[in-house]
Amino acid sequence: MKKNNNCSRREFLEKGALIGGLGFFGLPLLTTHLLNGEPAPPEKPAPDEPPADLTKTISVVSGDDPAKMTALAIESLGGMATFVKKDNVVVVKPNIAWERAPELAATTNPEVVATIVRECLKAGAKTVKVFDRTCNESRRCYRTSGIEAAAKEAGGEVLFIGERESFYKEMPFPKKKVTWPIVKEALECDVLINVPIAKHHGLSKLTLGIKNLMGLMGGKRGEIHKELGLYLSDLLTVVKPHLTIIDAYRVLVSHGPTGGKPEYVKMARKIIAGVDPVAVDAYATTLPEFGLTPYDIEHIFTASENKLGEIDLKKIKIIEKTI
Amino acid sequence: MISLRRLSQIIFIGLFIYFLLLTVDPHSPVNVFFITNPLLALTTILAGRTLVILLGASLIIILSALLLGRVFCGWVCPLGTILDVFHKFITPKICLEKKIPAGLSRNFPKIKYLLLVLILSAAVLGINLAGWFDPITITFKFLALSFYPALNLIIKNIMIDRWGWSGLSQPLENVGILDRNEVFFQDAAVFIIIFLIILGLIFIQRRFWCRNLCPLGALLGLLSFSKLLRLKIGTDCLTCQKCVKTCKMGAINNEIKILQEECIQCFACVPVCPVDTVSLNFKPIPVLTNQSETGFRPTEISGLPARRSFLLAALIGVASAPLLSARGGSAFGGKNNLSPAALTTTDNNVLAILRPPGALPSEEEFMNRCVRCGQCLKICPTNGLQPLFLQSGLYGMWTPALMPLIGYCTYECNLCTQICPTEAIQPLEIDVKKKWVIGKACINDRLCIRCGACEEHCPVPEKAIKAVWDEYGEKPLRYYVECDLCIGCGLCEHVCPVKPVRAIRVYHTGDKKCFNR
């Protein structure tokens, strides 16, 4: 009797384990397959090159509602449909580097990010991925900055970038003659939208669009600060943002890039958008809150030296609007 | 009853694992299994010489032992459940029990009482050894510090990366089985080895750990003197010994005498009796009047060790105090020990340990209060809290330390201070924690490459790291630490790109290498 009992119990356990295991591993696989449907066809309609004059244009919107300002800034450049075509995979790269509340202006305004995600989806994007390789612990940064919640609510897909090799692809840096791991998602997407926040930085004076792209670099990024200009212009040859939207609604004017006190924050109430990453950055340096010129920032100057964009604001058409 | 017990075991191990998975950043801290643990409570109160309110919850388990005996061992304990399950799977075809002389194995159950006496007598002298022997902490440390990171590694690196099952990652992350960060703990292999030894012992006896070694079981066994739920064998017993063979705890000996304090109320013996004379019943009768009826005479057949062994164990426990205590620990840890004396006199050759924020300021008090449960290590979002091995002496083994090379103390987080069951890490409000000084950062100017990463990352709003600029304001000449502002969070050391020795390092303020203090 004892033997019998034992046997059935083992059987029960084995079966239980089998079913449990199947459910445990099979179900997630199954559901994701069902949700994602068929894998996407390899050739996607690439977004058209923006018209020639668009590269020489930036739009600046002032106002009190960051979401509406962002929408208007995109509209002034011809609307999101100029950049995002149907079934495109879009990567929105905000600055989520620090674990700070949005009011402290160390991270991009979540409303700006949410608006961009919404505009992309409206233009027919298949998925909009939002991520950053953060400096503080990523889960906490995503949460505290409010960007995770805002982007998800807008319909975006929030990704976490880990430290494993599979997240990165080694890319050559032509000037420095080294290779550096770059986040794969940013290289494989159709449209890359760079959404930095304009703020003070201890070493490079300001951190704007080009510097925000550092969040796509893997490895130990600290050492590139020594030759920031060279490295960043190399980076700009590897990842070219199709659109840069600078959140200058709240700007951090000192103790950057982390800030941490409301005293360090000033209200500039501007959203700056453009195709040319250098021109957009160049304009942001001239904000009265910073009171600098584009030539004061080494990496912007180096990028223009390397013909990656236009630093001379006189050659740029600036569309200014106010809400 | 047996199926009811199994259900309870499944529920509680499920809860244990669920709480373990919840012991991670976004959730509120869950330490139910630790604050209800009477062994931890007793040793902490004795060794720490303080009443920790949180540990009052252990009265629940104490009460359950007084009324129902060792139900915790049979129905709740996750380690017991794991041993039961493993016994099912590898139903030992090899059984080493018969190879051990009966005279020896009869003495095995005494070990746990001796261990308990040792732990308690050491605790009276202010040495907290519970964390090394308590089954709950052993299980938690194995699961959280060794098994869970290994599982993550396998799922992430093999299943997702190599086999391309990327569909797994999101759902598993949502359930908490997959951590978004790569977690790693120093000396994780030690916990695996300890756990494998405990598992391996089931080849000798079923539930060898619970029968013979577990000090928590011993404590509950002693507390069960007044239990109402008692095993009883009637007079019409056939002495067929079926119940003896069934009992996984050896609570019924070969002469069909019952050792009440060994019984874990598992009910396995009740259905095997051919004449239905074995029963577990509520007997609301005091011990003495019940004796003749059940044949329970503690002095004769109880598994309690002799008085002499008790005294010996107590003596070992007492002796462990000077050998292990922070002050006397130099016998093991060399001069690496930090004693309060060294802190004030800034003795040479002191390698002070960076403790988590909120840790009791005196190293001695901290180690006496810490039960090495490993929850702070598990919950630390940056993986910066690591178990020590011998860095602060033998007694400091498995106490938490901040290791900036692996992770840092993130500015807006106070989770480790919230989860500590014994308040060795005092609960801090987030605003207090932001000002808590773990250590001070010191820059080695000869190694520094002036990259400014430390200044960039410094989370203190005023920036504890500042630059001296050249006359054009173009290039930083050197960086220095503003000592009064630095909280020693270790983020600067974590991001410093200089290899192999970081140009900026955080030292405990009691460390002679710490020139900023």
Describe the model:
The complex is a heterodimer of chains A (323) and B (517). By secondary structure, chain A is α/β, with parallel strands linked by helices. Chain A has two domains: 38 residues; 276 residues, 3-Layer(aba) Sandwich (Rossmann fold), CATH 3.40.50.11440. Chain A contains ten helices and twelve strands. In chain A, strands 1, 2, 3, 4, 7, 8, 9, 10, 11 and 12 form a ten-stranded mixed β-sheet that branches. Chain A has a two-stranded antiparallel sheet with strand order 5-6. In chain A, strand 5 and strand 6 form a beta hairpin. In chain A, helix 2 crosses helix 3, helix 3 packs parallel to helix 5 and helix 8 packs across helix 10. In chain A, 51% of the residues are buried. Chain B is mainly alpha-helical and 517 residues long. Chain B has two domains: 225 residues, no CATH class; 162 residues, Alpha-Beta Plaits. Chain B contains 27 helices and eight strands. Chain B has a two-stranded antiparallel sheet. A two-stranded antiparallel ribbon of chain B has the order 3-4. In chain B, strands 5-8 form a two-stranded antiparallel sheet. In chain B, helix 8 packs across helix 19. Chain B is elongated, with a radius of gyration of 26 Å. About 8% of the residues of chain B have low confidence. Chains A and B meet through helix 1 and helix 4 of A and helix 10, helix 11 and helix 26 of B.
Features:
heterodimer; A: 323 residues; Rossmann fold; ten-stranded mixed beta sheet; 21% strand; globular; B: 517 residues; mainly alpha; Alpha-Beta Plaits; 7% strand
How do you describe this structure in short?
With 323 residues, chain A is α/β, with parallel strands linked by helices. Chain A has helices at 2-36, 66-76, 110-122, 138-144, 147-153, 184-188, 209-212, 228-238, 277-285, 298-305, and strands at residues 57-62, 89-94, 127-130, 157-158, 168-173, 178-183, 191-195, 197-201, 205-207, 243-252, 265-274, 317-322. Chain A has two domains: 1-38; 47-322, LarA, N-terminal domain (Rossmann fold).
